[in-house]
Design brief:
heterodimer; A: about 425 residues; alpha/beta; Peroxisomal Thiolase, Chain A, domain 1; 2 domains; ten-stranded mixed β-sheet; 15 helices; B: about 80 residues; mainly alpha; 4 helices; globular
Chain lengths: ~425, ~80
């Protein structure tokens, strides 16, 4: 029997399995590993620039946060690499780094009790576009036999399990820009419930492609500020006008606390709560007042047995769209009341752009590091206050602060909301 | 026809990301070069493209084992279509 809900969990508090973070790996537009990405985050650097991978002359949007200089062969055999869409390569590469960070290269775990749950918003869209071009130009017989396996959004989880030989629970989560957060939340619950001892989890995305850029542009979700890439992503600023597309992967190793202790792993932080809700309102617009996101924040804290006053930092979804940032602010205020004014609320999307399905993974890492290092990454490009966004967004400069608990918010098209609660690890 | 052999070897080496020197006429695609079923199909479709033929006689095409078999098959197809 599964035991859900706060009251039941509180009753069995003494025996509840705790879930900690023991490894982290990322490929981000700010850097191709954890260390360089974190350094750039707390230095307030911007990763946005001209799109270089295809001709954007006819596109209204010409800027994005691309990965710079990624070489898949540094992480996998070139024969394997060519059978993977970039979204899959990113996941495998970030996993290799997380695995090393967790000190698992020499074993110390049971593969049958180790899972992989990696989210992606769209999967192999570059593969889809290339192969569709083949179909149009050369006919159906020229569609690659690798088209389907390279395109499907669950393949990052599949290829990571093959790369590391991990045989526990394995699937993908798909909830647009909340995919990575749902993956981590689902993994947290699976470990807490005893389905696995460790899960490699997070998100990956490689969607800076002609169809995706054109599609996001035509729905007016992205900013057209092509002449000022440095200023384009500006969450919570009055003059924000859309998000900047990003790409990459954020992957973590979640592990049951006693399992981590037994093998002497360095514990970077603890996941204490998770909640998922729906807006049930509109395909892409958030519900007025951020109602769905607010419930997710409240439920995640409840799941972790923490009160609003216990939280010092929120890594916001903060996309830099007019509606998200306004409603997310309203949601925070509705949940935290007077304590909202004391919170630090920053959006790392101001620096890396919107990593879509990878955002939840990358931002969970940023949140965990902020808690661990007592240093909060800023919201850059914050210049003109918006009367409807009146919280402390940690403007332009990182801030030192002791953080006991932090939340990280992820909201996706479709009205999917996922919130994770992280605690500073103490024995 | 030495041309055909060189092109076939180049396609196989590229698809399997192996050294062209490994792709001898005697080498078996699966047993010696390690191709899986998807890679076999990928090689065949690429060769169709390269030689502008259709390997629609699937029984014969799927029975090809070695690089030499493929070269012989393609030489026959190319001769028939020209």
């Amino acid at each position: 029997m599964r035991l859900w809900g706060r009251s039941i969990i509180a009753e069995r508090e003494g025996m509840q399995r705790r879930v900690v973070v023991t490894g982290m790996g990322t490929l981000s537009p700010l850097g191709l590993d954890l260390e360089s990405s974190w350094k750039a985050l707390v230095a307030g650097e911007n990763a946005c620039g001209p799109i270089t991978t295809f001709d954007v002359s006819d596109f209204p949007v010409k800027i994005a946060c691309e990965l710079k200089g990624f070489d898949p062969e540094a992480f996998m055999d070139k024969r394997e690499a060519r059978k993977m869409d970039p979204c899959c390569q990113y996941a495998v590469a970030a996993t290799q780094m997380a695995w090393k960070d967790a000190g698992l290269e020499d074993g110390g775990y049971d593969p049958d009790r180790t899972g992989v749950i990696i989210g992606s918003g769209v999967g192999g869209i570059q593969t889809f576009e290339n192969q569709h071009t083949m179909l149009m130009e050369k006919g159906p017989r020229r569609i690659s036999p690798f088209f389907i396996p390279m395109m499907i959004a669950d393949m990052p989880s599949g290829m990571v399990s093959i790369a590391l030989g991990l045989k526990g629970p394995n699937f993908a989560t798909v909830s647009a820009c909340a995919s990575g957060a749902h993956a981590i939340g689902t993994s947290f619950r699976a470990i807490r419930d005893g389905d696995a001892e460790m899960i490699v989890t997070g998100g990956t995305e490689a969607a800076i492609s002609p169809m995706a850029v054109g599609g996001f542009a035509n729905m007016k979700a992205v900013t057209f500020r092509n002449d000022e890439p440095d200023k384009a992503s500006r969450p919570f600023d009055l003059n924000r006008d859309g998000f900047v597309l990003g790409e990459g992967a954020g992957i973590v190793v979640l592990e049951e606390l006693e399992h981590a202790r037994k093998r002497g792993a360095e514990i970077k932080g603890e996941v204490v709560g998770y909640a998922a809700t729906a807006d049930a309102y509109h395909m892409t617009a958030p519900a007025p007042g951020g109602e769905g996101g607010a419930r997710a924040m409240a439920l995640a804290m409840s799941d972790g047995g923490i009160s609003p006053e216990d939280v010092q930092y929120i890594n916001a979804h903060g996309t830099s769209t007019p509606l998200n940032d306004k409603f997310e602010t309203a949601a925070v205020k509705s949940v935290f009341g007077e304590h909202a004014a004391k919170l630090a609320v920053s959006s790392t999307k101001s620096m890396v752009g919107h990593l879509l399905g990878a955002a939840g993974g990358f931002e969970f890492i940023a949140t965990t590091l902020a808690v661990k290092n007592s240093l909060i990454p800023p919201t850059i490009n914050y210049e003109t206050p918006d009367p409807e966004c009146d919280l402390d967004y940690v403007p332009n400069q990182a801030k030192e602060a002791t953080i006991q608990h932090a939340l990280t918010n992820s909201f996706g098209f479709g009205g999917h909301n996922a919130v994770l609660a992280v605690r500073r690890f103490e024995d | 026809m030495a041309d055909v052999a060189e092109k076939v070897k180049a396609v196989i080496a590229e698809k399997l990301q192996i050294d062209a020197g490994q792709v001898t006429m005697e080498a078996a695609i699966v047993e010696d070069l390690g191709a899986d079923s998807l890679e076999q199909a990928d090689i065949l479709f690429s060769l169709e493209d390269e030689f502008n033929i259709i390997a629609d006689d699937t029984d014969e095409a799927e029975g090809l084992k070695t690089v030499g078999d493929i070269v012989a098959y393609l030489e026959k197809k190319v001769a028939a279509s020209s």
